[in-house]
Write a structure and sequence with these properties.
This protein has helices at about 40-45, 105-115; strands at about 1-5, 5, 10-20, 20-30, 40, 55-65, 65-80, 85-95, 105, 115-120, 125. The chain has a six-stranded mixed β-barrel with strand order 3-4-9-5-8-7. Strands 1-11-10 form a three-stranded antiparallel β-sheet, with no helix packed on it. It is built from two helices and eleven strands, in the order E-E-E-E-E-H-E-E-E-E-H-E-E.
Length: about 120
């Protein structure tokens, strides 16, 4: 179980990402049941720019603002509370929205872990 925090009228949770042997602690991941894919903000994961040995693929993805290009890669592990998924494919993109966020927790992750969103109890389990 993890606590849902409402920020700018939207539900956010904390997420831990294991990527290439390093742990990244994110405290602003938007729960988005309207997003098919989980997206990690490139500014969060790569604040100094993409590594020279990046092994992702360029993909075209349709979002609320239309079509955009994203990088697709896999993280070693993604966890929120007691919900965990290993070797998980994610999209990497610059998330330049009005609300600051580290990423978007999409339906791919939520379905894979069998998540239950309890807004009244403010928890994701």
């Amino acid at each position: 179980m993890t606590t849902i925090r409402i920020i700018d009228e939207a539900p956010f949770v904390e997420v831990t990402i294991q990527y290439r042997g390093k742990a990244y602690e994110a405290d602003r991941f938007l729960i988005d049941t309207g997003s098919v894919a989980t997206v990690i903000n490139t500014d969060f994961l790569f604040p100094d720019g993409l590594p020279a040995q990046f092994d992702g693929r360029i993909r075209r993805m349709r979002g609320i603002g239309g079509w955009e290009f994203v990088l697709e890669s896999a993280v070693d592990e993604m966890t929120t509370g007691d919900l965990n998924q290993t070797y998980f494919r994610v999209q990497l993109a610059k998330l330049d929205y009005d609300t600051s966020m580290d990423g978007i927790l999409g339906m791919d992750f939520l379905l894979a872990v069998g998540a239950v969103i309890d807004l009244k109890g403010a928890e994701l389990r």
